[in-house]
Design brief:
The protein is an alpha/beta fold and 272 residues long. It has 2 domains: 135 residues, Periplasmic binding protein-like II (D-Maltodextrin-Binding Protein, domain 2, 3-Layer(aba) Sandwich); 93 residues, Periplasmic binding protein-like II (D-Maltodextrin-Binding Protein, domain 2). Helix 3 packs across helix 9. The structure holds glutamic acid.
Length: 272
């Protein structure tokens, strides 16, 4: 290439990079200008994001956090269903502004996207037919279902190298395979497994044995470089913790009266 061609190429690359940088950093301003926050949420995972049978609207723990952020911004909330596999591509392609969809903060994902402080903590476990599994060793060499694009896939293959990990489009499909006897267990976060089990008409036939293979901290995910938006989300999360709103949302979906009672052994802090 000639010197001039090199120079032109450099200018084109620099221009593209700076446009990308401006675009990436501008999501907060763009949300305010549009008057809408577009959040990617799950729509088949009670109690995080699922369709309420009466209202036909998507509701859940994640949805309430997305709504609180939209309210704080003074904008409307638009919900777009995402799967574990589609959520990061949807964010990168700018179809959504944030992901509030049971997304664990992992070092691998941090290379691609930014996370807020953690707003939910859980652990990865297994959902099995009652009486079939007492410890991790009972799952050696078995077929285990999970969802494509989840970190549950990776955790399971590391914890059980001899098992066959089958990745379904989503967890409800994996649970169907368990009910049909096609797989031996479904693995993902305990809170998700509890929601799936709870919805099953024959739920007493299934259980979540008391051992875990990982700790999972859910963060709200944003495009890298969207620091104004990330700061706003983080500030909102800390305010929600201080005001009791975050705990109220937890109690609504996981309190003693809920379908999936759990205790809140965490608070939202700037440490995680
Ligand atoms: N929290 C895990 C993850 O982010 C599993 C749940 C999910 O697939 O959304 O991959």
């Amino acid at each position: 290439m000639t010197k001039l061609a090199n120079l032109l190429l450099a200018i084109v690359i620099l221009a593209a990079l700076s446009t990308a940088a401006i675009a990436a950093g501008d999501t907060l301003a763009e949300i305010k200008r549009k008057g809408v926050l577009v959040a990617g949420v799950k729509d088949s995972l009670p109690p995080f994001g699922y369709i309420d049978e009466q209202t036909r609207r998507i509701v859940g723990y994640d949805v309430d956090f997305a709504r609180a952020i939209a309210d704080k911004l003074g904008v409307k909330l638009e919900l777009k269903p995402v799967s574990s596999a589609s959520r990061i591509p949807q964010l990168m392609e700018r179809h959504i502004d944030i992901i509030v969809a049971t997304t664990s903060n992992t070092p691998q994902r941090q290379q691609q996207i930014d996370f807020s402080y953690a707003y939910f903590f859980t652990v990865q476990k297994f959902l099995v037919k009652k009486g079939t599994v007492k410890s991790l060793a009972d799952l050696e060499g078995k077929k285990i279902g999970t969802a494509k694009g989840s970190d549950s896939e990776q955790n399971a293959s590391e914890a059980l190298p001899s098992a066959t990990i089958l990745s379904f489009d989503d967890y409800p499909q994996a649970f169907l395979a368990l009910q049909q006897g096609k797989i031996f267990a479904v693995t993902t976060d305990e809170a998700i497994l509890a929601g799936i089990r709870q919805k099953a008409p024959n739920k007493e036939k299934f259980e979540i044995p008391d051992f875990q293979i990982s700790d999972e901290a859910y963060g709200i995910a944003m495009r890298k470089g969207d620091s104004a938006l990330r700061d706003f989300v983080n500030k909102t999360l800390l305010e929600m913790e201080a005001s009791g709103q975050a705990k109220e949302i937890f109690e609504k979906w996981f309190g003693p009266q809920s379908a999936t009672p759990m205790s809140r052994a965490f608070s939202i802090t700037a440490d995680k």
